[in-house]
Design brief:
Number of strands: 15
Largest sheet: 8 strands, antiparallel, barrel
Distance between the termini: 51 Å
Oligomer: single chain
Low-confidence stretches: 1-28
Strand content: 25-35%
Shape: elongated
Strand order of the largest sheet: 1-2-3-6-7-10-14-15
Radius of gyration: 29 Å
Length: 276
């Protein structure tokens, strides 16, 4: 077989296809994410009582680019697909805008908000999006460095808890230690001198405070199962980011009408392993 016959044809990667329709100035400042909307009735929503009363859902999955050009969210294909009783339905989707609130002293996560518009009516088992509906998606975003910092703060707090627990444990160990023989007094005496009642109480108070601080630090850390499976780039941020699952989807009247999640579009093989 000739060498020419062994040549492998060049393929277009997912990332290059994603960037093909973007302006040249935007390619370096764009991040592709696959958005998954789960539209349907949510608890305590202010949507009309007959809206999505069947309990059905309208799942919409589509790739988007988050760009720095006017902070636009641009659907890559410009369409969404879903299946109803008539078969597959294809509807258009138009671009929106995104904002990202910076973290503060109390929270390490960043609040991500973006909009998208559906020009045509969509109806799946009484889950209806009227023509021209603009959805507002709200969620949380963590950089990889954010998570590392949160983990470091938690481990530091846990070390303090372990140290305080050891000091409290030493109270009973010293009190219950085997007695030793005192040759001068010619009798068995306690091996260790006991601390005062107030000193021991102070150790227990420090342990209680350390436990509370450890719990506070732990609550700030997102669980791995509540984040996107993979991390990816996001405009304006160094390194890669995770987007939290269970974001809120609101309609034009600010009523909750579903949830959303996202996964980055990359050329890396996906791994769905989650350590327990």
């Amino acid at each position: 077989m000739s060498a020419a016959a062994l040549q492998i044809p060049k393929t277009t990667t997912t990332t290059s296809m994603m960037m093909k329709n973007l302006p040249e100035s935007s390619v370096a400042a764009a991040a592709g994410w696959r958005i998954a909307l789960n539209i349907g009735r949510e608890r305590f929503t202010s949507m009309p009582s007959n809206w999505a009363s069947s309990g059905a859902r309208l799942p919409l999955v589509f790739p988007c680019n988050f760009t720095t050009q006017q902070n636009e969210v641009i659907p890559i294909k410009g369409e969404v697909r879903y299946v109803d009783s008539r078969g597959e339905v294809v509807k258009p989707i138009t671009k929106g805008n995104w904002t990202l609130d910076p973290p503060n002293q109390n929270n390490a996560q960043r609040k991500l908000t973006f909009t998208l518009t559906f020009p045509e009516t969509m109806n799946r088992n009484n889950v209806i999006l009227d023509a021209g509906t603009t959805v507002h998606c709200e969620g949380l975003l963590y950089t990889v460095q954010d998570i590392k910092d949160l983990n470091a703060q938690f481990y530091k707090a846990r070390d303090k808890t372990d140290d305080a627990a050891r000091r409290v444990s030493d109270i009973s160990k010293r009190r219950d230690a085997p007695k030793k023989w005192d040759f001068e007094q010619q009798k068995w005496v306690k091996r260790y001198k006991e601390d005062s009642l107030f000193a021991n109480l102070g150790k227990r108070v420090k342990l209680f405070g350390a436990n509370m601080e450890e719990k506070r630090k732990s609550k700030k850390r997102p669980k791995a199962t509540m984040l996107s499976v993979d991390s990816g780039p996001f405009p304006g941020l160094e390194g890669e980011v995770f987007i939290a699952k269970g974001g809120i989807v609101r309609g034009s009247n600010n009523a909750v009408m579903g949830t959303w999640s996202a996964e980055p579009i990359t050329d890396r093989p996906a791994s769905y392993f989650r350590p327990t």
